[in-house]
Amino acid sequence: MSSDAALVVLAVVGAVVLAVVVTIVARSSGWSAPLMLVAIGAIVALVPGIPRLTISPDVILYGILPPLLFSAAMRASLIDLRTRRDPIILSSVGLVAFTVLAVGGVSWLIVPGISVAAAFAFGAVVAPTDQVAVEAVTRRAGMPRMLSTVLDGENLLNDATALVALNSAIVAITATITPIEIGVSFLLEVVAGLAAGLLVGFVLGYARGKLGAPVLDTSLSLVTPYLAFLLAQVAHGSGALAVVVAGLFLGYRAPNFQSAQARVAEELNWRTIQFIVENLVFLFIGLTLPSAVMAAGDSGIPIWQLVVIALGLLVAVMLTRLVWGAVVTPLFRYGPARLRRVGWPWVTVVPWTLAGVRGVVTLAAVFLLPAQTPDRAVLQLFAFVIVIGTLLLAMPIPAVLRRAGLVMSAFDQERVEAELLMAEAKAAGLEMVRECADENTDPRVLERLKADAEFVSASVDDGPLPTGESLNVAYAALRIRLFQAERKAVLRARAEGRFQEAAVRKVMHVLDAEETAARVLRHGEV
Length: 526
Known about the structure:
It contains 22 helices and no strands.
């Protein structure tokens, strides 16, 4: 291996280890892991002898964005998104257009020498919120289900709107384009993106349904976002929209064509990929920040003026979101019955505004600006400042939610509903067993199944225990300890050589599966 290749491998390994360490520290201290990674990256970049880091925008657009969008879309609820479609459409399309116009107008007024087209291009760059960055900040904030669903839908769909607007603005920088051409281009990109995403989702869903091995299924899953993105690009559609559509389709249809083992493996793989990639993105922002500052300093604009303009643009981005929330909220309070059913109270406006975090999409988009864009380096610095600034502004979200009385988190709501649904499913399964039972069915088997169903029902009917936990959660906690003891016994037997390795592995797989189920019940994740 050449020295350059060895350095690249060492850098990637070091970055992943750093991300793991920072995440552990952040979880124990309550700090923001993304901000810590940005700060560490900036400090490392200032160390003498560290080479200047550059990356092609195509690597971000084609290599990083598709898996992040797909991972988020796979976990999103298509039913919830459809239920909240009105606020999601208003945020992912209306707010993006409003931000392009508002922030573009402010940019044209306060950035020296910027053209109208470049100003609106910058507005498109900072318009989309980022699924990865928002989740990194809000996943432990205790978001109510309604608010988290709207944010998920907005973050998934606004990328396509913003990137289409950016493409139109980039064309306007070097050529002339009419509003009609912009509208037609937007419509064609959306239609082609939807078609590409549905086609890839349907074909791969059918193909994966014919596979019996989780390894083969997961292998196809890993290439799905790239296939959807590239097919949409070839068809002149929105690659981001195609990836989201494919992820939503496959996530919703997964129980129909995947085995339980394949679903568990896929979720773990995509969570791992998302963790690594999203943390590398934040570290990359920090590593490139000093270079962006130096490049902007060469523009001739005084440093104090750059700081004032950057802060002004950050304020414009946040005020645009706040104003939009204040304008559309009355629609959900006093508008038609369909909108009133959304349940969007005034107290959600502030936490929703603070959750407008920018991230990898803005980072990728700003590097797509053509070289002839006036003060391109300055605009890149401003984009970085807005990403970091929105991360900082999102930190008070947990306190704001508590102050607003939005105390029940999405996970709490999910756990209550999950226990109700589990009790219903257990009752249906027990009824089927009773109908199919005959004289050959051992009564002890029926008694065990009946006891399981009655236990789940009791957890729902009796309410929480004095500790605040449900009966099911307390049971899951004790089962986890039980499985750990059983696993130690299996490993001790293996060490003593009393059983063949094949038997040990089978028992370990059973224990792992049962412990995974208990952890999902207790913590809500694998």
